[in-house]
Fold these 3 entries.
Entry 1:
Amino acid sequence: MAITPDTKDWTWVLQEPCEECGFDAAGIEARRAGDEARAMVPRWTEALARPDAGERPDDSTWSVLEYACHVRDVLLLFAERLRLIREHDAPEFPNWDQDATAAQTGYASQDPRAVAAELGPAADAFAAEIAAVRDWSRPGLRSNGSAFTADTLTRYGMHDLLHHLHDVRA
């Protein structure tokens, strides 16, 4: 059975805590988010080493492997979006369909060891872009019109990363 696409607008997590994972954007210091993202990598590596990492817990939930692939791609996506914010005035971000990406790149069939090895460099790319930000108020726009600043984009990205650790109980 295919996963039902997540069509929720999760930007509300910038204003209120996430009851599911406990994330509170107010407690995130954007300048330190790169270090926090890097610190998550060993937890993902451990989760990917589970014998059942490639198995879905049910028909409607991604496996640890699929979540890890998504997290790798989110790290790279948010690094790219931060770069766009730094280098361009109010850039519009291209649409990214996470479910289409999962299907097109075969998240479920990727090698857990390879994905674990890719998470560190992806976290490093995100951290490098965070370190390069000089003006945290610079804006960028998602394809649905949601406006972010470098600060809110970083906080929003951190929710995604932390929420998925919660999803896989890592």
Entry 2:
Amino acid sequence: MKNLLLPLILLFAFTLQNSFAASNLPSLANVQEWKIKWGGRPRDPFVAPDGKVWFCGQAGNYIGRLDPKSGELSRFEVPENSHPHNLIIDGRGVVWYAGNRNGHIGKISPGSGEVEKFLMPEGISDPHTLIFDQQNNIWFTAQNSNAIGKLDTATGKVTSVAATQKRSRPYGIAVDSNNQPWSVLFGTNKIASVNPRTFVLTEISLPRENARPRRLVITRDDNIWYVDYAGSYLGRYNPKTQAFHEWKMPSFPGSNPYGMAVDNDGRIWIAETGQSPNKMMVFDSQKEVFISSTPIPSGGAIRHMYYDHKQDKIWFGVDTGFISNIHLNP
């Protein structure tokens, strides 16, 4: 009986310790939220040069725009069955979105709302997450098509490379200072990079076989930071030394970290979606410690986040029907 009780006692103590660690963190951040009247899972906001915030109505099949100063909302229609998953905005204020259900990347004129479609080649049906490179071309993941691709925004040409393993599920994506894209392969325990000139794909296994990385960010030193959604870890990979370092999330093992963003000071913001309500954690990448934990009032899952460096705010959508931002208190 003693041999049976000891593991249970240790598990209880371990869980209690991590629960205490999560609850013991101060909340150093302030949250603002706007209810979106159309619902439809508003997500993936991005701040335009004029300060207005565009977002995807994924389930509602629309693109929305929020004026944070007045609260005014505008709606833009997209082709039927697009179900836009993610959007980004170039320096001219042009909106580019991922038509996740009907195989295109769309370009929206912010003035007229007119949509231009860039169709995906055969084999790619679901552009997922978009990111600009240094030439304002768009790299993207295609989760169910098992590919990472590039759209030449001047010519409309799409080039892609497939992951080596079936159902690798390329998911989050970011570009480093050398103009090289990095992605996490959510269906595996791997991260991957693509040579932007040769399109050679390099896959790198994480230290734990059961890891399932979902999003990533890149700090100014070109370290790759990822969240392990299944294992509740934050990880760092140094491409120069090929070394990994991992930290348990404050709500381990029930964290399910998902959305990520990095601010001007190298602080990494992480949404713990395994918690109800979701909690926004802040990790100081220089001191290598978690410094803040803030519950999100509106509840629901936080899927993707965007950092507005001009106003020092993190923007995100919440599945319960909100567009929100968060920033550290002065």
Entry 3:
Amino acid sequence: MRRPYRLDQLTWPQLEAAAGRSLLAVPVGSTEQHGPHLPLTVDTDIAAALAGRLARGREDVLLAPAVSYGSSGEHAAFPGTLSIGQEAVESLLLELVRSADAFAGVVLVSGHGGNAAPLARAVARLRREGRRVLPWSPSGSPTDSHAGRTETSVMLELRPESVRMHRARPGDVRALAQVLPILRASGVRAVSGNGVLGDPTGATAAQGRRILAAWSADLLAAVERWSAATDHAGG
């Protein structure tokens, strides 16, 4: 019988004994445009899938419901983008992890690059407070940073019914570092009319399967290293 590993499957008495020896995996995503071919929930879907794989792969990990809103102001010119801004993301993560003191530690699996700065600030403060927390985000090509081949392939594997490949078109394919100053000043629409940073054409579910496997292995290895190091340090 498969163990219950998701908080939406558990009650507090079931958690009372287990929480102190369990890590809580929290998917952190966003709700924002991902080109004309992908749904608005891509970052949340990917973060939730990876955190779920981590929880299924380690007996000491429990899966929390996803944080579905993030700092997405650079996508504000596209309908459907819902952003709570950097300060709110930082505050949300601070209070969320503080409230999880019953657990042995918290792993924040972030699927949205726009959350990187507030996530880093929150983690630094939480660690100064003595809390056990690990941030992790998937890696990617600097010329394929948003709604390109990587994310499209992964979504073809995770939620193929949500992908509209007939609408997939290349966007701006320059390296992210080249366009970042414009993005910060004027938003994504200033460099990409369709909201894509990369080229989604040619994406396949098979590619997505390989990418997910590599990301999952990297996340698992990161948690194993962190868990071993913090156990050795006594917290």
